[in-house]
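ESCALATION

Customer reports they have been waiting on this structure for their group meeting. Please prioritize. Original submission:
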Amino acid sequence: MTGKDATRRLPLGKSWVLAAAGFVVLIGGVVAWRQITGGPQNAEAQAPVQQRAAQQRPVQRPAAAAPAATPVEEVAAPATQKIQTVAVVNREPITRSSLADETLRRHGEEVLESLLNRHLIAMACQQQGIQITEGDIDVEINNIAKKFGLSVDRWLGLLKEERNVSPGQYRRDIIWPTLALRRLAASELEVTPEEIQVEMEKNYGPKVKVRMLSVNDRGLAEELRAKAAANPESFADLAKDYSQDINSAAARGLIPPIRKHIGNQEIEDTVFAMKAGEISPVLFVASQYLVFKCEEQLAADYDKIPAGSLEGIRNQLAEQVRESKMRDAAATIYEKLQANAQIVNVYNDPAKASQMPGVAATLNGQPVSLRELQEECINRHGVEVLDGEINRKILQQELTRRQLSVTEADLEAEIVRAADSLGFLTKEGKPDMEAWLKQVTEEQGVSVELYVRDAVWPTVALKKLVDQQVQVSEEDITKGFAANYGERAQVLAIVVDSQRRAQEVWEMARRNPTEKFFGELARQYSIEPVSKNNDGQVPPIRRHSGQPTLEEEAFKLKPGQISGIIQAGNQSIILYSLGLTKPVITNIEDVRDELVKELHEKKLRLAMADEFERLRDNAQIDNFLANTTQAGKAYEAAVRQQMQQQRK
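Update from on-call: job pushed to the front of the queue and completed.
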């Protein structure tokens, strides 16, 4: 069997080629485990962060046999020796092989597609004797940086900061394919004088100043056209009153002058044939009925080109044409390469993987090794995945130190708790674990395996470490009842950003202490959107909400009274009391169990966040991949104590 019958093709689409031909690609996938540092709510099993879907089978170790015979040129940043210990956490190493497994588990499929794309292009270059050197890549990057008025270092830094694209990845996955496809398409990138002339007419040629009227009904369009033809001076008013294109209607139908070779050919032919004051027939374009009035035929701007600049402008326009052709030609060439390629996806097929150990895929009969795929995954995603593995190592070490462990039963119980808390219940009212797992994994784009590893396990581990420390006191219950079920202060509020403005507004409110006038002041002066847009009305203030000064002032006011000026950070707040609400539930015993459960969860989440922060701060971490070192607060304190003793 040959062709498609003998292979399982990867979805190598045109979009990758277009991206490689000059666009920076957004790097997808953020490790959910890292989000544990974002706050207690992110440590909960019900809130994993989106990741790439993982493979369900165990990650294979690459065999030593069957090395990949790859023609692809090495275009990464200058090669360095690959370190086999990528991090040390409290003197315990994390190996490169374990990191390779984890990056492969999360990003193997997406990275394999990109890797095979490069191999496929490299094979075509090899067949045609095309070589892309490091110097070629340096020149291209320098030219791109110059286009944006940046140094190379600043340009590469922006790619890293804004798109998380490392310099090595930029060279390998964007610049190298761009140059390779450009060389492969060289015969199709010739720019003719006629094409340059078209660009000159686009930018400097004649144009037509027009007004436009746009509606979606043919009958109305014909009616308006007839009125405009009878009285051309009425066109602007007709466009303002009837046109359904809001932008042009607001400008009484006036739109930017129409140039040649830019938009719809029928529109261009129509308006360029019109004289000033003439009304066009009704044109049907993009589901709209359009009528145009010619205001003025504008002459070409060729004479405005500075002396001596014409040749440079023509060269610049030629380059624009070449880049446009490049994108089209690259996609066409790649489609041809792909159509003729034989790709066997071993990585995604357990049966083939067992027959071809250590191979991720074959491309036209040549193997691409699993080891190469692992290294590519590390190159792209190693730093963020390693950070997650460091976090996991820290938690595992603390569990071991305290002789605790996370069992399968613990993990299942946490998933059941998450399903229950989010309302995933069976018809019998019991937690529906299967429905929850289906929802969360599909929604976040992860496998059950990764969801459990990256969200459920750390949640359970942290709960094991802090659960005995969390107690709900009677005072907690009393405060919780007051906050959730007690009376609330209904107020109007004005929020301003300066003490001086607050004093002015407060004085005006004091002179006319009515609800209506206070609302007018809020609408005029408040900088807070809710109070400004609702005549001062804001959600009722409850007790124990974390704003004690505001609460105290709100609850002591009587209806119709105005507060003093309340300082909250850089803002000043003035309140007008509307009175207190009446509680619906007055007996704390009616909701005690529910309160205890809710308060325990809140205190538990806070304790989990604090515990993780403490463990992370105290850990000794050497991250060789990110080239960072952390001595740990406990170690630093011990060193300081030892130095103090030596001084004595």
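Sent to customer with the following note: The CA atoms of residues 147 and 176 lie 18 Å apart.
Escalation resolved.
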